[in-house]
Amino acid sequence: MSDAVPRSRVGSDEGGRRRDLERPPAPEPLSVEVVDNHTHLDIADSDDDTSVEDLLAASAAAGVPRAVQIGCDLPAARWTVEAVDRHPQLLGGVALHPNEAPSLAAAGELDAALDEIRELARHPRVRVVGETGLDYFRTPPEGVATQQESFRRHIAIAKELGLALQIHDRDAHDDVLRILAEEGAPERTVFHCFSGDAAMARTCADAGYFLSFAGTVTFKNAEPLREALRAAPRDRILVETDAPFLTPTPFRGRPNASYLVPITVRSMANTLGCDLDELCGALAANTEAVYGTW
């Protein structure tokens, strides 16, 4: 990483707690390249003085030369379309995050916003509709019906345009699976930052869905998630950062970025008891199966 990377910064999280904003050191690079299939460079672009070019260069040096940039509100979706034009290392995903839908609906703007997402998704380097889905953690009960309607409409856009679907599922497993079954899931459906247990992993795999594992799989209290990883077929798993969030152990709480993917992949290989290079090869093949070539 360049000298532009900040080395000693302190900020606050949403709860007002002090948070160390120093970027972690680069891990040992992977010898077989993989892709970060979910990152938010638009947020990193505004978080500190580190440029997108710096982050992409650091990622490539770590054996993670490509990424899927996800924009999950209208400003971020517009940024994403511009970014995939500027940076050949990136493919894009655009959607309205489930927590955006109720506020847009209350303002009478949801239909227009979804129309714009559909148009942005026609860009040839946008390969994903997402992240979309359900989030019952932050949205109160009165917003659930709007979230579900928005989710259904995103599913329809993905199928109309022949794109992959990336799902955000927080505290809503049963309803996410039910709506996918009712609407008919797109051919390529990814559970971003998979958070279910082993039984759900088997259910998703049986339905043909892909499960994307983030830094959470390294957390000390995440044994049920590691059991889910063990239960998932090797040809159904992906890796991601969700950067700048969900930084893997031992740097939890500090800013995440694609160059830290090797930490998560090594943890996954350890959990699975498999060869690291073989796992990287499988992750790379699965990524291309979902998104195509860069």
Structure description:
This protein has 294 residues and is an alpha/beta fold. The protein has one domain: Metal-dependent hydrolases (TIM Barrel, Alpha-Beta Barrel), CATH 3.20.20. The chain is 41% helix and 17% strand. It has eleven helices and ten strands. Helix 3 (74-86) packs parallel to helix 5 (110-120) and helix 8 (198-206) packs parallel to helix 9. The chain is globular and about 50 Å long. The protein starts with 9 loop residues before the first strand and ends with a helix.
Summarize this structure as a short list of keywords or feature phrases:
11 helices, eight-stranded parallel β-sheet, TIM Barrel, 10 strands, two-stranded antiparallel sheet, globular, 294 residues, alpha/beta
